[in-house]
Amino acid sequence: MSTEHAGAHLGALDDFTEARRRAALEQVLDRLRGKSVDLLSYDDVRHKLKARRRGPERLEDVPVGAIVGSVDRYADFTRTFLPKESIDPDRWARVKRAMTGPSGVPPVVLHKIGDAYFVVDGNHRVSVARQLGFEQIQAYVTEFEARVPLSPDDRPEDLIVKAEYVQFLEDTELDRSRPDADLSLTEPGRYNTLSEHVQVHRYY
Hints:
Blueprint: H1 3-33, E1 40-41, H2 42-49, E2 52-63, E3 67-70, H3 89-100, E4 108-113, E5 116-121, H4 123-131, E6 136-145, H5 158-172, H6 174-177, H7 190-203
Helix pairs in contact: 1-3, 3-4, 5-7
């Protein structure tokens, strides 16, 4: 490695160290606030929302801030894709050098559910892109459709209510018969009560 490349690599390693420091701080603050610091698990979300594939893969520019989950690396980065302890510093630094160099990097691969995106391939690239302040990143996107909308602001604890909402809609079909009705609730267990009211209304 030339002196110039060595210097660039050391600089990227310094950036990684700073990102790790911020990740540790983010984890402490979110725990104090009682919020989850983790990325969303794609498999968990798809299962709970019963999402189904919609259409072919397409190439597009995706808002980096809307990428809030991963298929298999959701435990390796914080909610804002800061690297945790399991991430190899050298690999992260090499990706950063490639993304800031003349050759660039290939598009990442993402799954989309609602307005949220999940990384299939390219977790390190997304992590570096967020630290570099990129607003968008090029990606191959496959979209999945769910009866209940998913937002980039949703956290793991929100999925409990959304999963109940999905089951409620499957049982009642109210999103088909009353598409304009807003039936979203915020507390777990309330959809059972609402479903009982619907059944009583149907009876009478």
